[in-house]
Design brief:
By secondary structure, the protein is mainly α. It has one domain (12-465). 84% of the residues lie in helices and 0% in strands. It has helices at residues 12-48, 50-74, 77-87, 90-115, 118-124, 129-142, 146-161, 166-188, 197-224, 238-270, 274-310, 314-341, 343-348, 352-357, 359-378, 380-395, 401-424, 429-466. Helix 5 (118-124) packs antiparallel against helix 6 and helix 11 (274-310) packs parallel to helix 16 (380-395).
Length: 473
């Protein structure tokens, strides 16, 4: 911070850490619940059929690339709601909440249209026919779940910005239990139903996502209702909706660059073999599960920093940023230890039943999975730091920097190095993951530096605005 800014009051850092932790904990648990639904799908399908694991791996890659892009656009609501709330500007906050109610409808249509071309997209990417057909079928069956999921996300961003996160946690718990039950029924054919495998997993997830939207709308209604009246016609103006989408597009673009790097990693590994793809999916699922915690902390950082920006408090913004980054690094240190110490045991969780039905294929998947889980352990801490920094920058209203950094980190550095290591050395599929290690480390360093610079600019700009003007001499 610039020397001209006032010193923070004693204990302010600890107070902000507690506030961030109170907000981040339920958000992180909700993120884990969100990821838990996909993890249960993979576990169920992997134990239904080891070859089907490769199908859900590639299917999840494409479906969550589309859906995740839409969700990241919705995340533009973080500063749009938090900053006016911090400033006490109810009119601006009301317009943001009302726009959030129609945003999912605008985003869902183009995403669904792209998803309809899942099969030719996977064919264009050169995936094996048996994996391609299963993955495309899974995507097509999953498309009806996009709209309810984005409705849930939009409601969630609004109530998070208002620090009302308990309903999100309750809804996520209920939806996970429902998804577990429906997966058991649809995938394995219980209670008189036919065993539907991949198709059953997609149907279970669709119904669970619908429950997310309906239950959160019901539980959050007392919080949301005051912001919907009086209704502003400006909330429905195309220019207003476009302004939100325009702010969210770089967030979505950064997500596409990052998730696209992991997706391309799966595709490149698919050129090697289906067992390798299954191993990649195991490591990817575990890494994504641990990643949900710093993603939740990142959302809390966006809210806390956005509040501080709204009330023109650069010291508070800096404390919020430091607290969130420290929490993210601490959590991912524990994850790193688990991945490095128990890679084979973690990978085996996905293949216990398949070991009995198809032991040869399952052992091959386990071998590659354990190797890639170990590599994933190496990048846990830097991955946590970089995603929390993205949340800090979002709270500052900076959504473009992460896009540029992810472009350089993954596509100018991580992917080229990964391809070189995977196909020109003896590392094989693990080489792609070592390229990701390099890209994530570079991204974490640059984004941290950008957060520091952003805090300094915030302090300088507020000091300039608040400086009393000298009367003319």
């Amino acid at each position: 911070m610039p020397s001209s800014t006032p010193s923070p009051p004693a204990g302010a850092g600890r107070s902000e850490l507690r506030a961030t932790l109170r907000l981040a904990t339920p958000i992180a648990l909700a993120q884990l619940g969100q990821m838990g639904m996909g993890t249960v799908d993979v576990l169920m399908v992997g134990n239904f059929s080891a070859p089907a694991l490769a199908g859900i791996a590639l299917g999840n890659v494409l479906f969550w690339t589309l859906t995740g892009f839409g969700y990241r656009i919705v995340m533009a609501l973080d500063p749009l709601v938090a900053q006016p709330l911090g400033a006490g500007d109810d009119r601006r906050a009301r317009r943001a909440v009302q726009t959030a109610m129609v945003l999912p409808l605008v985003i869902t249509l183009p995403l669904t249209l792209i998803g309809l071309f899942a099969h030719p997209i996977l064919e264009l990417l050169g995936q094996p026919a048996e994996v391609r057909d299963a993955a495309a079928g899974y995507v097509l069956w999953s498309l009806p779940g996009i709209l309810p999921f984005l409705v849930f996300c939009s409601l969630r961003q609004c109530v998070q910005a208002m620090s009302k996160v308990r309903p999100v946690l309750i809804v996520m718990l209920v939806a996970n239990l429902l998804n577990l039950l429906l997966d058991w029924m649809f995938v394995f054919g219980k209670l008189g139903l036919p065993a539907m495998g991949l198709q059953g997993a997609a149907m279970a997830s669709n119904l669970s996502r619908l429950s997310l939207a309906v239950l959160l709308a019901w539980l959050s209604w007392p919080t949301i209702r005051p912001w919907l009246s009086p209704w502003s016609r400006r909330a429905l103006q195309p220019t207003r909706i476009w302004s939100v989408v325009r702010l969210g597009l770089p967030i979505g673009g950064a997500f596409l660059l990052e998730s696209g790097a992991f997706s391309f990693t799966a595709i490149a590994i698919g050129w090697i073999g289906s067992a390798e793809v299954g191993g990649h999916q195991i490591a990817m699922t575990l890494a994504s599960l641990s990643f949900m915690v710093p993603v939740g902390i990142s959302s809390a950082a966006a809210v806390r920093v956005g509040y501080a920006v709204g009330r023109r408090d650069p010291i508070g913004a800096a404390h919020a940023a430091r607290s969130a980054i420290a929490l993210g690094a601490l959590v991912m240190t524990a994850s790193m230890a688990a991945f490095l110490l128990f890679p084979e045991q973690l990978a085996e969780l996905f293949l216990r039943d398949s070991m009995q039905r198809d032991p040869e294929h399952a052992r091959a998947v386990l071998l590659f999975g354990a190797a890639m889980v170990g590599v994933a352990g190496v990048f846990q801490v830097v991955d946590g730091i970089q995603v929390v920094c993205v949340g800090v920058l979002r709270g500052l209203g900076d959504t473009r920097t992460p896009f540029v950094v992810h472009l350089l980190a993954f596509w100018a550095l991580g992917i080229p190095v990964g391809l070189l290591l995977a196909f020109e050395t003896e590392l094989g599929p693990a080489g792609m993951w070592w390229g990701l290690v390099l890209g994530l480390g570079f991204g974490a360093a640059v984004l941290t530096a950008r957060c520091i610079a952003g805090m300094r600019r915030l302090g300088a700009s507020i000091a300039t605005i608040d400086r009393p003007r000298n009367p003319a001499r």
